[in-house]
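Course assignment 3, question 2. Fill in each field.
Student: A.L.
Task: Predict the tertiary structure for the chain below.
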Amino acid sequence: MARYIGSVCRICRRENQKLFLKGDRCNTEKCAFERRGYPPGQHGQGRIKFSEYGLQLREKQKIKKMYGLLEKQFRNLFEKADRTKGVTGNNLLTMLERRLDNVAYRSGFANSRNEARQLVRHGHFSVNGRRVNVPSYMTDKGDLIEIREKSRAVARVVGALEGAKRREIPQWLELDAANMKARVRDLPARDDLTAPMQERMVVELYSK
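Answer field:
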């Protein structure tokens, strides 16, 4: 599968926003966006004026990169959100948040979504007692996500849970760090997402 393997710090600089793609490192002075808060490349420090289409495209790219999806995955999820009853933009963000790799990250089991995706793929998680290794698995209200018994000594998971004590866990999730479990208390609402995202632009882009 095609996957971006370059420096993720360039993505934050390109989108002119800190996307926290490297976990706790993004909160330190080593963060590349803090040191060089302008787009990469020889013309990065010049004036850039986007058209309406350009602004919509950049917003779509930002959200797509934030959650680590490929274009086809993101487009398919948008079409599913468009078919679902309700506001398409809100449906899209709710579906992105409900992905198992995102829930694992939000719950504090990983320092970044990329790390959470890798842990899921390697079979370290179970949902309602059943092993799940598909990052795009859509969690639902009441689901119990936990680290499998044989994976509870994995250094990355233990370290991430230590860091989770300093991170705010969303209200729609309930973390039991001692037992390495998390429960989806409710489906995420738009007000639960604090990252600046303008999903309306994505809807307008795909509606053309």
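Instructor remarks: The radius of gyration is 18 Å. The first strand starts at residue 125 and ends at 127.
Grade: pending
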